[in-house]
Design a protein that fits this description.
By secondary structure, this protein is α+β, with helices and mostly antiparallel strands. The protein folds into three domains: 259 residues, Rossmann fold (3-Layer(aba) Sandwich); 99 residues, P-loop containing nucleotide triphosphate hydrolases (Rossmann fold); 133 residues, Alpha-Beta Plaits (2-Layer Sandwich). A seven-stranded mixed sheet has the order 2-3-1-4-5-11-6, sandwiched between helices. A six-stranded antiparallel sheet has the order 18-17-21-14-15-20. Helix 11 crosses helix 12. It starts with 8 loop residues before the first helix and ends in a 5-residue tail after the last strand. The structure holds guanosine-5',3'-tetraphosphate (G4P). Guanosine-5',3'-tetraphosphate (G4P) binds next to helix 2.
C-alpha cells in the first residue's frame, strides 16, 4: 500500500535544517562545559559562565533552567534547542550522566548523530565505551572531540590508536594540534593546511578570537611546534586517516577535532561540523523496514518518560521524537499500540518555568507531552496514516536485586506498582517461570533502583525491601541455550514479561569463558532489538 499524502515541501526543508545529536562522554570529560560553549557560539548566551552558580554547578538541569529564565531560550532537561547558521540544533541530554541509567541509552534512539568527548589525558573511558556500543548498534555517525588540550595530556597519535583499537572507529582528524597538551597554540586545519591560532579570553567567557595563517607564516612564527604538527599530519595523510563522508555516515569512521571547551579553542570547528557533516533528520524505517517519508503526516515515537517532574501534580511527561510531518500543538493523534486518540491540547504548555512551549515541531525535534500516563517507551503516535516504529533497543543490565514488599498486606499495591513501573521501563523485571516467585529487578544504573523504590512507596503506597542478587552480568538467550545453561553453575535464566529470556551470571569471567568456548550459543548483549540494521 502506498502512502497517499499531501506533499508538504515546508516539512522537508525544515527537516533538512535540523541537526539532532547527543554528547557521549565519561563524567568530567567536559560535556557540560562544551554544551555551554555551543550555546555561546550559537549566540544563545552572550557570555559563558555568567549564569552558572559557583556552588552546585553539577546540577545541569538547574543551570539550564537558569539559562532559560534569563535568556528566554528553549531548554528542557531533555533537549536543548538553538539555532546556528540558520540550522536548528537539537542537543539531546544523555541523562544520568553520573548516575547512568537505561534512559541514557534510550536518548540515543532519538538522536541522528553523536559527539564523543574524550579527555586528552584519559582517552577512552568506561562510560564512553558503553554509550558508544549503543551508537554502534544504530550505526550512528559519531564526531570525536579531544578535549582539555590546554593542559598536559597524552600524545594525540596514541589516542587515535586507542580509539581505533578500543572503539573500532577509524579516526579522521580534521584539525590537528599545534603545540603539546598544556602548550596549545592552535590547530592545523587539514582541509587547507592552514594554521588557526587561538587566543584566550578571560575565563573563556567569550568566543576565542582566531587568526588564520598560511603555512609559511605559521612555520616562521611557531617553529618546532609547527614542524612537529606537520610531521604528524603527513603521517595521517600517509595512513589514509582522512575524512570519508560515506564511512562517517555509516558509523565506521569518525571525524576528529582537538580543542579545549574551557578556553573555547576548537569549539567553533566542532559546531560547524555538526552543521556541515552530521546528517539532517532523514526518513525513519518503520517496523516493516519501510521508510516513513518526512512529509508524510505526523509520526513520532516516545523515547523517554519522566514521571513526577512536578511533585505537586504527579505528571508524566512523554518525550516524543518527531519522525515525519508537522506537529502543531492541539492536534489529536492516534496512539499506535491501542489505536486510541491522543489529545495534545496541553502538550508542552504546562511546562512552566522549567520548559518551553512548543507550538510547532518538525522531523528531528522533540516534543514533550504532558499528562501522558498511558504512553510507554517505544510507542508510536501518528496522524492519519498508521505507522509503527520498531521498539527501542534495550541493553544487558548489569545490576540485579530481588524485591519484596515490606508489608505483605500490601501485596496488591506492590504488584500494581511493579507492573506500572515495568511498563514505563524504570527497571526491567525478571521472573522465574514456574520457579521462585520473588522477582529480580535488573538495571544498568543504581539510580534506576532508587527511582523504583521511591515511586513504589510514594505513588503506590508499597514500601519494599531490595536485596542484592548475586549476578554480575546478563545476556539475552534462547530456549536451546537455556537447556545448556542449566548444566552450568552460577547461572540462572529468567524471563521478562515480553517473553525475552535473560541468562544471569554470577561472574563476568565465567560469561567471558562461555562466550569463547561456545560461540554457537545465544548470548546477546542487546537484550531486545530496536531499529538495528
Ligand atoms: P562533564 O559534564 O563531562 O562531567 O564535565 P564538565 O563540563 O562538568 O567538566 C568537568 C571539569 O573539567 C570541570 O572542572 C571543567 O571546568 C573542566 N573542563 C572542561 N573542559 C575543560 C577543558 O577544555 N580544559 C580544562 N583544563 N578543563 C576543562 P571542575 O574543576 O570540576 O569544575 P569548575 O570548578 O572548573 O567549574
Amino acid at each position: 500500500m502506498s502512502l497517499v499524502v499531501a506533499s508538504d515541501a515546508g516539512v522537508k526543508a525544515e527537516a533538512a535544517r535540523r541537526r539532532t545529536f547527543a554528547i557521549i562522554s565519561h563524567p568530567d570529560a567536559g560535556k557540560t562545559t562544551l554544551t555551554e560553549k555551543f550555546l555561546l557560539y550559537a549566540g544563545a548566551v552572550a557570555e559563558a559562565g555568567a549564569v552558572k552558580a559557583r556552588t552546585g554547578r553539577r546540577r545541569v538541569t538547574s543551570d539550564w533552567m537558569a539559562l532559560e529564565q534569563q535568556r528566554g531560550i528553549s531548554i528542557t532537561s531533555t533537549v536543548l534547542q538553538f539555532t546556528y547558521r540558520d540550522h536548528v540544533v537539537n542537543l539531546l541530554d544523555t541523562p544520568g550522566h553520573r548516575d547512568f541509567s537505561e534512559d541514557t541509552y534510550r536518548v540515543l534512539a532519538a538522536a541522528d548523530a553523536a559527539i564523543m568527548v574524550l579527555d586528552v589525558a584519559k582517552g577512552v573511558e568506561a562510560q564512553t565505551l558503553k554509550l558508544f556500543e549503543v551508537c554502534r548498534t544504530r550505526s550512528l555517525p559519531v564526531l570525536t572531540f579531544l578535549n582539555k588540550y590546554d593542559r598536559p595530556g597524552r600524545d594525540p597519535l596514541e589516542l587515535l590508536d586507542e580509539i581505533e583499537a578500543q572503539i573500532g572507529l577509524h579516526p579522521a582528524p580534521i584539525t590537528w594540534p599545534v603545540g603539546i597538551p598544556g602548550d596549545f597554540r592552535g590547530v592545523i586545519d587539514r582541509r587547507d593546511g592552514s594554521f588557526v591560532r587561538y587566543m584566550r579570553t578571560a575565563r573563556g567567557a567569550t568566543a576565542a578570537p582566531e587568526e588564520r595563517l598560511d603555512p609559511q607564516r605559521a612555520a616562521a612564527e611557531e617553529g618546532d611546534a609547527w614542524h612537529q604538527a606537520r610531521d604528524a599530519t603527513a603521517l595521517l595523510d600517509e595512513i589514509g586517516a582522512t575524512l570519508d563522508t560515506a564511512s562517517f555516515l555509516a558509523g565506521s569512521s569518525t571525524p576528529l577535532f582537538v580543542g579545549s571547551a574551557l578556553t573555547n579553542f576548537g569549539v567553533r570547528h566542532l559546531l560547524d561540523a555538526v552543521v556541515n557533516l552530521a546528517p539532517p533528520a532523514t526518513p525513519r524505517p518503520d517496523d516493516q523496514g519501510f521508510e516513513r517519508p518526512l512529509d508524510a503526516p505526523f509520526a513520532g515515537f516516545v523515547f523517554k518518560i519522566q514521571a513526577n517532574m512536578d511533585p505537586a501534580h504527579r505528571d508524566h511527561v512523554a518525550f516524543v521524537r518527531v519522525c515525519s510531518g508537522r506537529f502543531t500543538r492541539g492536534m489529536t493523534l492516534v496512539h499506535g499500540p491501542s489505536g486510541r486518540p491522543f489529545a495534545t491540547k496541553y502538550a508542552a504548555s504546562v511546562f512552566g518555568a522549567e520548559r518551553d512551549t512548543i507550538d510547532v515541531a518538525y522531523p528531528g525535534d522533540v516534543v514533550g507531552l504532558v499528562n501522558a500516563g498511558g504512553l510507554q517507551i517505544g510507542d508510536t503516535l501518528y496522524d492519519a496514516e498508521p505507522v509503527a516504529f520498531p521498539p527501542i533497543a534495550t541493553f544487558a543490565p548489569e545490576l540485579f536485586a530481588s524485591v519484596r514488599p515490606r508489608d505483605t498486606g500490601r501485596h496488591k499495591q506492590f504488584h500494581r506498582g511493579l507492573t506500572q513501573l515495568e511498563r514505563e521501563g524504570v527497571v526491567q523485571v525478571l521472573r522465574d517461570p514456574g520457579g521462585d516467585p520473588v522477582p529480580v529487578l535488573a538495571a544498568v544504573g543504581a539510580m534506576q533502583f532508587e527511582v523504583f523504590v521511591h515511586r513504589l512507596a510514594h505513588e503506590f503506597g508499597a514500601d519494599v525491601n531490595l536485596a542484592p542478587a548475586p549476578y554480575k552480568a546478563a545476556r539475552r538467550t534462547d530456549q536451546r541455550t537455556t537447556e545448556h545453561l542449566r548444566e552450568v553453575r552460577g547461572t540462572r535464566v529468567l524471563a521478562r514479561a515480553d517473553g525475552t529470556l535473560l541468562a544471569l551470571f554470577e561472574s563476568p569471567y565465567q560469561l567471558q569463558r562461555l562466550e569463547q568456548d561456545h560461540p554457537e550459543w545465544c548470548l546477546d548483549p542487546v537484550v531486545s532489538a530496536g531499529d538495528m540494521p
